[in-house]
Design goal:
Layout: H1 5-20, E1 30-36, E2 39-42, E3 58-61, E4 66-68, H2 77-86, E5 92-96, H3 99-106, H4 116-121, E6 127-129, H5 137-146, E7 153-156, E8 160-165, H6 168-190, H7 200-218
Parallel strand pairs: 6-7
Antiparallel strand pairs: 1-2, 1-5, 2-3, 3-4, 5-8, 7-8
Helix pairs in contact: 2-5, 3-6
Length: 227
């Protein structure tokens, strides 16, 4: 019996949904979920999401030893392991090369607090994680250092986006929020007019709610829903 069957199937469904939304393309990006205190399931490396089945999904421990799966795990498995080791509130990671946020990655433009929903679920801003080559310990280290701000989305310079959540549904929604904000920010910048931000008091109230959700997730409690 496959102890991780439900989580592996969830990753397949989530990956294919992200493809349909245009957030995952070709074989780029990767998706994972925590399956225990020291293990996670993740998409295989360089594999067509449309053909993927639950049996293709890999299960690794945080030291990247394979527990299940015959295929090679994603080359960014170390990045995911670093997130799970550093943040007890995170139970799902979505890494994409989504277009509008990736454009900001090229010009090193973090997304400021533009919308209430953004701060409530992503954090005070979407920061740029300094460049390091893909699938390296340098990239993992850069991201892990950034995680200390307790945000749920990060733009990797010249690479893509990493979104986190207490569950896979929330991590997917966070990826969608990032893309909405990235497109709106790019369009606003094109006007060459000042870009307004959510007022600081409202920003802090929204971020406090996010931190409360994260603390509940750390204790293993169900997250709250809605805006």
């Amino acid at each position: 019996m496959d102890a991780y069957a439900a989580e592996r199937q969830q990753i397949v469904q989530a990956s294919q949904a992200l493809v349909a939304k245009g957030l995952l393309m070709a074989t780029g990006g990767n998706v994972s979920v925590r399956v225990g205190p020291d293990a996670f399931a993740i998409t295989p490396s360089n594999y067509d999401y449309g053909r993927m089945t639950a049996e293709d999904v890999c299960v690794l421990d945080l030291q990247l030893n394979v527990r299940q799966g015959a295929l090679k795990p994603s080359v960014e498995s170390g990045l995911h392991a670093g997130v799970y080791a550093a943040r007890a509130d995170v139970n799902a990671v979505v890494h994409t090369h989504q277009v509008y946020a990736s454009a900001l990655a090229l010009v090193r433009a973090p997304i400021p607090a533009l919308f209430d929903e953004q701060v409530r679920f992503l954090g005070r801003s979407v920061e740029i994680v300094p460049y390091a080559p893909s699938a390296t310990g340098f990239l993992k280290g850069n991201l892990v250092r950034a995680l200390k701000n307790h945000h749920n989305a990060y733009i990797l310079q010249n690479h893509g986006v990493v979104c986190l959540g207490p569950d896979l549904e929330r991590a997917m929604h966070n990826a969608e929020i990032v893309e909405k904000c990235a497109l709106a920010y790019l369009l606003a910048l094109c006007t060459e007019r000042p870009v307004t931000k959510v007022p600081l008091p409202i920003r802090e109230i929204a971020f406090a709610k996010l931190r409360q959700d994260q603390q509940r997730a750390e204790r293993g409690e169900a997250r709250t829903g809605g805006e």
